[in-house]
Amino acid sequence: MTVTHDDVVRWIRAFADAIAQNKDSLTDLDSAIGDADHGINMHRGMTAVLAKMDGDGSADIGALLKTVGMTLVSSVGGAGGPLYGTLFLRLGAAAAGKEELTDEDWVAMVTAGVEGVQSRGKAEPKDKTMVDALIPARDALASAVAAGEPFADALRSSAAAAEEGMRATIPLVARKGRASYLGERSAGHQDPGATSSWLLMRTAAETFGDHME
Ligand code: ADP
Ligand code: MG
User: Which pLDDT does position 212 carry in this prediction?
Assistant: First the structure.
């Protein structure tokens, strides 16, 4: 029950596809409480990532994810790009030198990635950011793996927790990022970054879980 380098490539492609498919809805969410560019930003970044990945011949999952992170940092402006860049750089650092991943590796990587997003952006739970999807996803993943659940189930729980966390951003008043400029008026809208983070966890569950049933 391991995730291979090819699986990770499939996941990055699946995330890029999900971003492409949801580009307009992510941008609509950002138009309500931000500056209407989250879908555009993420799409630009993931398009650059796909172009970079075509030339990658190495089997090192850490190196692959580091490339993804560096490409996002250098190709995406705004808050979202550097935060996702940091997330992928930390995933990569936690997977350095690995050609396959166990469920425990994945827990360690996601934990490191979420820590990176928090140390870079200083967002806490309920600040109405991507952290509100990522922390529940990490927690659900870690407890399912610790309980010895099959990896596919742990991944599904993680994606479901991200979705719930994403929906729970709707009533929140934003305390970080551009949405915080709106104060109370940010309530009643789903956070765009939490939405793209749900797509990230959902595509991981779909990709890594599907050959493990
Ligand atoms: P920008 O806000 O610069 O236009 P994006 O629109 O690409 O960048 O991304 C906005 C998303 O970034 C928000 O919906 C939120 O989830 C996330 N975000 C913003 N600031 C922070 C932060 N300090 N910590 C975590 N996430 C943040
Ligand atoms: Mg924006």
Answer: 54
